[in-house]
Amino acid sequence: MLKISTDGASRGNPGAAACSYIIKDENGTLIESNVEFLGETTNNVAEYTAIIRALTKALLYSDPYLTVYSDSQLAIRQITGLYKIHKPHLQNLYNEVKKLSAQYQHVSWEHVPRTNPDVALCDRLCNEELDRHRI
Q1: Is 82 helix (H, G, I), strand (E, B) or coil?
Q2: Each residue of 46-71: pLDDT tens digit?
C-alpha cells in the first residue's frame, strides 16, 4: 500500500499557488516527492491539483492500494461524498480525481491536521516553491 500526502497553498485566494505531494511505501520509506508552481489560482484548486498529480504519479508504482492524506477538509469531504460540489471548476477537478481513483483497486481518503508530519513537509515544500518565485 502506498501512502500519499498532499498539500496546496496560495498566497491570496486567488493568488500565487503551489502544490506538492510525497509518496511513501508501506514501510514509510519516501519513494517520491514533488512540488509545482501553479501560477495564480485558489487554495482549493491547489489542494485538488496536488491530489491529481499524486494519483497520476502513483500509477507508475503499480500498487493497487493507496491511502491519501490531506489537510483539506473540503477536498476530502467532497471526494468522499460528505459535501456537495457547487462550483463547476471544482466539479471538473473532482471528476479527474474519481477517474484516476478508478484505476486503483482501493483508495482510502483521510483528512488529517496540518500538523501531520507528512502534510507539514508538503506545506513546507509549497512555501519554499512560492519563496523561489519571490511571492
Answers
A1: coil
A2: 999 999 999 999 999 999 999 999 99
CA–CA separation, 114 vs 126, rounded Å?
13
User: What's the residue count for the chain?
Assistant: 135
Conformational region of residue 68, where left means phi above 0, alpha means psi within -120 to 50, and beta covers everything else: beta
Helix (H) or strand (E) holding 36: strand 30-41
Contact 71, 119 (CB under 8 A): yes
Q: Does the model's pTM come out above 0.85?
A: yes
Cell of 38: 501553479
Grid coordinates given for 84: 456537495
| Amino acid symbol at 19 | C
Between CA 115 and CA 23 the distance in angstroms is 18
Report the 10 Å Cβ neighbour count for 55: 22
Phi, psi of 34 (to 5 degrees): -155, 150
Cβ neighbours around 115 below 10 Å, total: 9
Helix (H), strand (E) at residue 53: helix 43-58
